[in-house]
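Box 4.2: Ligand-aware structure prediction
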Amino acid sequence: MSVPQRPVPVVLDVDTGVDDALALLLAVRSPALDLRAVTCVAGNAPVEQVVRNTLVVLDAAGAGDVPVACGSQRPLLEPARDARHVHGEDGMGDLGLPGSTRRPRAVHAVELLRATLEAAEELVTVVPLAPLTNIALLLRTYPHLSDRIARIVFMGGAAAVGNATAAAEFNVWHDPEAAAIVLSSGVPTTMYGLDVFYDVTVDAATAEELATSDDAGARLAGLLIGHQLARFGGTASTIGDAGAVAAVIAPDLLTTVRHPVRVELAGTWTRGQTVVDRRGRAGDLEHDPHRLHGLPAVPIDVALAIDAPRARRLFLDTVRRGSAP
Ligand code: RIB
Ligand code: CA
């Protein structure tokens, strides 16, 4: 597995969130990434709780210097609808962790994203792991900044079935209008959707070993995975959002296809569905009755498979980097 020579500059947009926490731990500890900023948005939990959780995770990972900013407290149109039934009342497994002494930056997430993109000498990879409200606002407020983005690698959507509803994945379902704006932006984009999201797992024995680590970051990862196992049962639990970060570190983990993707905004049963146009009939698209309907359908790279064992090894080896040998 090749690791880029120069660390890839990245920003993460999160709704921390058990699996967002695992993604943050991976991003902070990977020598292949240079985490420039973390922005928070309402999703799994209210945005104020997301900020609190994010600061706690960065402290545990030893990354107290990474700037954090609070973003949208609700989607563009929809009310905020949390996922505490999945992530716990506090959004992070109800582990009862003490809050950070650190404060977020006194600017909106969009402003931290703008400043980070403008300050970077090279193009930045944007990694949304949450509803896309902040990213949509960034692209609509500062459209010229899309030229400063190398790629958007987002956790969201699905080519097959949903999770929040039968048709829609939670991050897209939570703010479908924001997702539609981002997916039609023309920025090179990789969709890390439910088709791969559940494939990268960690088993109970490994979670228990991590949870006894003397390193706060590795220990937190073990406790969070243990929470998911206790809540949902089974012998292993997905690392979720962390898989999208692994795909930034090692893009060859993914098998992708390039197809236009639209977001359903009107369907009673399908609102928030990512409609992946797999027809592959470029010529006939001129006669596609939907060709002029709504936002343009822009081809993006859709992940349909992942090398799950290699992704798991990458996650575990990297998160353990902070722990004693
Ligand atoms: O559908 C899964 C996604 O929704 C993950 O990002 C999880 O953290 C929640 O935000
Ligand atoms: Ca998330």
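In the box above, the bound molecule is alpha-D-ribofuranose. The domain at 8-319 is CATH 3.90.245.10 (Inosine-uridine Nucleoside N-ribohydrolase; Chain A).
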